[in-house]
Amino acid sequence: APAPPAPDEVITAAGKHVIVIGGGDTGADCVAHAHREGAASVTQIELVGEPPRNRPDDRTPWPRWPVKLRTSYALEEGGERDFAISTTGLSGVDGEVREIHWVKNTGEPPFAPIPDTEEARPAELVLLAMGFLHPEQELLEAVGVNRDPRGNVKAGAYATSVEGIFAAGDARRGQSLIVWAINEGRQCARVVDRYLSHQTPRDPREELAVGSSLRAGSSEAGADPPLKATYAGGDGLSG
């Protein structure tokens, strides 16, 4: 068995053939850092097929987000990119990776492999940037919360099916952006505060009165009416 890494060992891309599995924002950051660290080569691979260069109106008509080919800032600096790739294995010596093995696929679910397209490439550092489908199921099973069909925590207004357990961000809505995590964390905190204060539960995405120092119907000169923040339908904060 290979020896465990030393506590002060630094994982670096310097002088190595780097493979990045995953084509999203995280994958782009991996490519960029590999460039900064002086990688010998950088290749980014994606499971899905190459999208069209122009918006396919039959698939993503306006105003939906267009599914089309985009090149990240990192790949503009250099490196290769390949689509419709299914990784089949890694091989190496003494516990250190030396090659990645893959096969071309059809580019669409269920991503069936295409015969006679097997290939091996040098790979001395493999970075996984594939996102995730749902939170760790073992944890959710241990606490006994209900889940939606995609395996996320089922918590419409942040309260789960188990008393005293709340969920927000990716755990509740699935893979998303940091701005959603921040927004949902704040809203969930309101729900938890009301729960701990034994107040009536209220969905923070509905109309809320804010600015607790302002009192409705105040007779003080110059007093402003209570401020209100209206939450848009779904999960968005509109004002």
TrEMBL record:
Pfam hit, one: Pyr_redox_2
This protein's name: Glutamate synthase [NADPH] small chain
Database matches in SUPFAM superfamilies: FAD/NAD(P)-binding domain (SSF51905)
Enzyme class name: oxidoreductase
EC number of the protein: 1.4.1.13
Residues of the FAD/NAD(P)-binding domain: 116-185
PANTHER family on file: GLUTAMATE SYNTHASE [NADPH] SMALL CHAIN
Top-level taxon: Bacteria
Keywords: Oxidoreductase
Stretches with biased composition (Basic and acidic residues): 199-208
InterPro entries according to UniProt: FAD/NAD-bd_sf, FAD/NAD-binding_dom, Glutamate_Synthase
Keyword Zinc-finger in annotation: no
Chain segments carrying region Disordered: 199-239
GO molecular function, one term: glutamate synthase (NADPH) activity
